[in-house]
Amino acid sequence: MTAPQISFEFFPPKNLEASFRLWDTVQVLAPLAPRFVSVTYGAGGTTRELTRDAVATLHKSSGLNVAAHLTCVQASREETLAIADSFALAGVTDIVALRGDPPQGAGRFTPHPGGFANSVELIQALAETGKFAIRVGAYPDIHPEAASAQADIDWLKAKLDAGADEALTQFFFEADTFFRFRDACAKAGIDKQITPGILPIENWKGARNFARRCGTHIPAWVEDAFDKATRDGREDLLATAICTELCSELIEGGVDKLHFYTLNRPELTRDVCHALGVTPKVALQNVA
Ligand code: FAD
User: Fold this and answer.
1) How far apart are CA 20 and CA 139, in angstroms?
2) pLDDT, tens digit (0-9, with 9 covering 90-100), for 33-49
3) Most buried residue, 94, 120, 247, 253, by CB count within 10 Å?
4) Residue 15 burial by CB count (10 A; 0-12/13-18/19+): exposed, middle or buried?
5) Ligand 1 atom closest to residue 197's alpha carbon, by position in its atom list
């Protein structure tokens, strides 16, 4: 099995303690030489400044290729593009461009009166600047708002045709879900990189709630396995085994890039990466 190329998602810290945790996470995962690391943008645009500060600091101090998430929620076009410009000024020119979700409890996405109506408009505007490498979201289990599986894929194609370079998927539980999606994308004429998003399950209750919210199908065998493992106090062991197995099946099916949702907790992601043959790149002078 060839070791995959990997990337990691972090979220911006909201206080000093969380900043230390992010820094520790970066220290553990950076030696695995990720293609890039990305920093999320809070639902409803709630972490605008925190995201900007986190990407600028990571870019300056970690030596990693950093991508900033950016959404269209609750901001005018000018404000959204000004935020993109602030990323570029900090040296960050990779963007994960999303429509975004509204703040919690606000129901469906409603465009800001002067804002981008959807993700395609945002991608077009970012692409027109010529400054950014653009990644977008994709949904192997189908986005809850999609009219149909085909409509979801057609919309993904529109996002890639608008100037995006790569799609990162929502997490899913079974490799076949991704393979079916990849085949359907190819059939629709999508020829750009589609990278599976992997959620190492640190906390089953949280992961299950998150999956339900974002329309990710939870197979009965996963529910059963976690119920038993939780009773036996072996959740960690099961999480590592399930995640490693999923990644191995993806790699055997031809996947060469994986994007990990770390939730700023590095251990499980690191253990899975090691099991897949992704090991720290240590400079010779540091070994001697
Ligand atoms: P889109 O793909 O534009 O729309 C979602 C779905 O709705 C589409 O798949 C399509 O089926 C349908 N749709 C929407 N508009 C149209 C249209 N005009 N015509 C036809 N169909 C349409 N959220 C955050 O708030 N902050 C983040 O940092 C963040 N990071 C993410 C990273 C990744 C890799 C992923 C996969 C998701 C992330 N999200 C984030 C969640 C994301 O904001 C939500 O899933 C949101 O509901 C959709 O955003 P999108 O850009 O993928 O939307």
Assistant:
1) 32
2) 999 999 999 877 678 88
3) 247
4) exposed
5) 34
